[in-house]
Amino acid sequence: MEIAIALFDGVEELDFVGPWEVLAAWRHLYPGDLEVFLVARDNEVVVCAKGMRVLSHRRWDEISAVDVLIYPGGRGTRVQLGDESIRARLRELHQRGTLMTSVCTGALVYADAGLLDGKEATTHWSVIDQLALLGRDITPRPDERWVDTGDVITAAGVSAGIDMALHLVGRFGSAEKAREVRRSIQYDPQPPY
To answer: Is residue 193 in some structural domain?
Structure first.
């Protein structure tokens, strides 16, 4: 299985690094299960929302289909709204059978592309009302960490991407593999505040 994680300038760091950590741990524990890689417009440095600088493994023009796409959020999603080339790319991947997943405001980009029409979805609490404005018949689920509608999964803000990625391990691997990955990365959320 191939899982691509999208990168773009202004991407929120934990939105992609959290799922990366989960999926890379799964790959480490079960090397034959999946390949995970970062994909961006070009091979240039991507400057993230909080200043982290990263490089992708592949360019968009180097992939035609993947099994799963994770689309993170961050301030960089806002300039993507209305971009017909991004809409077309996402629609094409969806039509080819890619499981479309998002973290945080990545859901806004999916809504803008029409991928959330007629579906339940979630995103960061501060922009949950924008989902309905960007699509048709979208049912916002503000209290959910993630929403799985079968062909699209949306996750709420930032750390919810870790939960969504563990859900992917359980969905495509097994509940036992998901528990093993969770233990491997010592993900036991008990925030101090």
So the answer is: no
For residue 36, tell me if it sits in a domain. Answer: yes
Question: What CATH number is attached to the domain comprising 86?
Answer: 3.40.50.880
Could you tell me which of 119, 122, 163, 138 has the C-alpha nearest to residue 21?
163
Catalytic residue among 104, 107, 109, 115: 104
When pLDDT is averaged across residues 47-52 and rounded to a whole number, the result is: 98
Mean pLDDT of 163-183: 98
Asked if 104 and 155 touch (Cβ cutoff 8 Å), the reply is yes
C-alpha dihedral sign at 29, 30, 31, 35: negative
| Tokens read off for 174 | 């097994």
| Domain containing residue 125 | 2-184
What is the model's pLDDT at position 64? Answer: 86
pLDDT digits (tens, 9 = 90+) for 112-125: 999 999 999 999 99
Joined together, the tokens standing for residue 49 give 């929302």
Catalytic site includes residue 48: no
Domain count for the chain, please give it. 1
DSSP string, 77-104: GGGGTT-HHHHHHHHHHHHTTPEEEEET
